[in-house]
Design brief:
The chain is α/β, with parallel strands linked by helices. 33% of the residues lie in helices and 25% in strands. The strands form three sheets. Strands 3, 4, 5, 6, 7, 14 and 15 form a seven-stranded mixed sheet that branches. A six-stranded parallel sheet has the order 10-9-8-11-12-13, with helices on both faces. Helix 9 (242-248) links the parallel strand 12 (221-229) and strand 13 (251-254). It is globular.
Length: 321
């Protein structure tokens, strides 16, 4: 079979190599899946760079979420068991963690419904307890993680403000349903959001960026607001001033979605059922902005690493194209 392999850490386009390798053999509790589509995530770039919290042994294949097919023909969503990641013809996965692919979504969309939407659902509903009528601010609102949070926020009845970088990404954020879009390259984010909210700020702020975005969040969070820390795509991990959180009376909550797979897997299943229902009625639909063949995976991961993508890029196998 074919698989992209990383033999040394570095930038994805430099270290990912397409090779002919042996098909992996399932261990206890594992199943072999034929990959139908593999979604590209920012963690794939971090894996290549050796900067992710999980560091599989070299050589490994990146690709952390797929839509695959079981030996008996069932279409499922799965997180491949590293080092056998999703940018390959076949992967291994935990048999107990397989989720049925929603019938309302094609392979690429189904692959993209998993990590980003699960993270959004847990962040907004489990950690921040977003309520209808509240204001949600989403940083990087045109990206894969951001577009999921925007759609989930609208489905929950929130007013959604999206922060993006560039006119093309602003157009995507509006298409996804943002009520207000702020282009950080052209506008003062703090001033624009304060104007949009009458000076009140946002009840919930969803931050997968860190760095300057977090500094803006601290200035924009409303009384009894919640800042959800999802990741640090900027590469800068902020150091929150806890005295500021005390004085302004807001919460800083972290979200590591992967922990739910071991701490409370039933909640992951419940979340998937909620997402499937939302997808069935059209309330959410992953934005797959680009579909590439397996041969284009390395370039696709590099585009995501460089912040040059919107929505999700999916690697789609020829049989599923």
């Amino acid at each position: 079979m074919q698989a992209w392999q990383v033999h040394e850490n570095g930038e994805p386009s430099a270290v990912m190599r397409l090779a002919e390798v042996e098909r992996p053999t399932p261990g206890e509790g594992q199943v072999l899946l034929r990959v139908r589509a593999a979604n590209v995530n920012f963690p794939d770039a971090l894996l290549c760079r050796g900067q992710y919290q999980v560091r599989p042994p070299l050589p490994f294949t990146p690709g952390v979420e797929i839509c695959g097919e079981t030996e008996d023909g069932r279409r499922v969503i799965a997180n491949p068991a590293l080092p056998y990641g999703g940018f390959a013809d076949y992967v291994l996965a935990d048999a107990r963690a397989l989720l049925p692919a929603p019938e309302s979504l094609d392979d690429a969309e189904a692959a993209a419904l998993h990590i980003g939407y699960q993270t959004g659902w847990f962040g907004l509903h489990r950690r921040a307890h977003l309520e209808a009528g509240e204001t949600l601010l989403v940083h990087a609102a045109a990206g894969g993680v951001g577009t999921a949070a925007v759609q989930l926020g609208k489905a929950a009845g929130a007013t959604v403000i999206g922060v993006v970088g560039g006119a093309d990404k602003a157009a995507v954020a509006r298409e996804m349903g943002c009520d207000v879009v702020v282009d950080r390259r052209r506008e003062d984010v703090v001033a624009a959001v304060k104007e949009a909210t009458g000076g009140r700020g946002a009840d919930v702020i969803y931050d997968p960026v860190g760095g300057e975005a977090y500094a803006q969040s601290a200035k924009l969070v409303a009384f009894e607001g919640r800042i959800v820390v999802v990741g640090f795509a900027s590469g800068s991990i902020p150091s929150p001033a806890l005295n500021h959180a005390l004085v302004k009376n807001y919460s800083i909550v972290g979200l590591h979605w992967g922990l739910y797979n071991t701490k409370n897997p039933k909640l992951v299943q419940h979340c998937h059922e909620q997402l499937t229902e939302l997808a069935a009625r059209g309330a959410v639909k992953p934005l797959v902005s680009e579909r590439v063949p397996l041969s284009g995976a390395a370039a696709a991961v590099q585009r995501v690493a460089d912040g040059r993508s919107t929505g999700r890029i999916a690697v789609v196998m020829e049989e599923s194209a």
